[in-house]
Amino acid sequence: DVQLVESGGGLAQPGGSLRLSCAASGFTFTSWTMSWVRQAEGQAIEGVARITVDCDTHYRDSVQGRFIISRDNANNTVDLHLNSLKTEDTAIYYCVRGSYGSAVRGQGTQVTFSS
Fold first, then answer.
1. Which phi and psi angles does 80 have, rounded to 5°?
2. Which of 34, 114, 37, 22 is nearest to 75 (CA)?
């Protein structure tokens, strides 16, 4: 079975950084584009970052230059480095097998901000 297990969320401060990690199993990781999407409370899911099998990347405009997606094909992991965090980055972040519209995703990890 496909499994995507996210970790690394938590409390952040504006301007701070977090690293989210996704451990993938149950499929041929090297054959798939991997993505991160997020969902803020009461909002629709939105694509955040995507990395192809050739390590080409795409970012939504609002995170371009702040977030970095990377993948480790030896360990079947995909990370999302969140830098220069803003309060509007508050959301549950999901690791996705495939591109932004894929329904195959993990259980999510929450990113929130301390006051």
1. -130, 115
2. 22
List of residues 6+ apart from 101 with CB closer than 8 A: none
Tens of each residue's pLDDT in the chain, 115 residues: 999 999 999 999 999 999 999 999 999 999 999 999 999 999 999 999 999 999 999 999 999 999 999 999 999 999 999 999 999 999 999 999 999 999 999 999 999 997 6
Using alpha carbons only, how large is the chain's radius of gyration in Å? 13
C-alpha to C-alpha distance for 77 and 23, rounded to whole angstroms:
5
* DSSP labels, 70-85: EEETTTTEEEEEE-S-
Cross-strand partners of 18: 82
CB contact set of 88 (below 8 Å; sequence gap of 6+): 40, 62
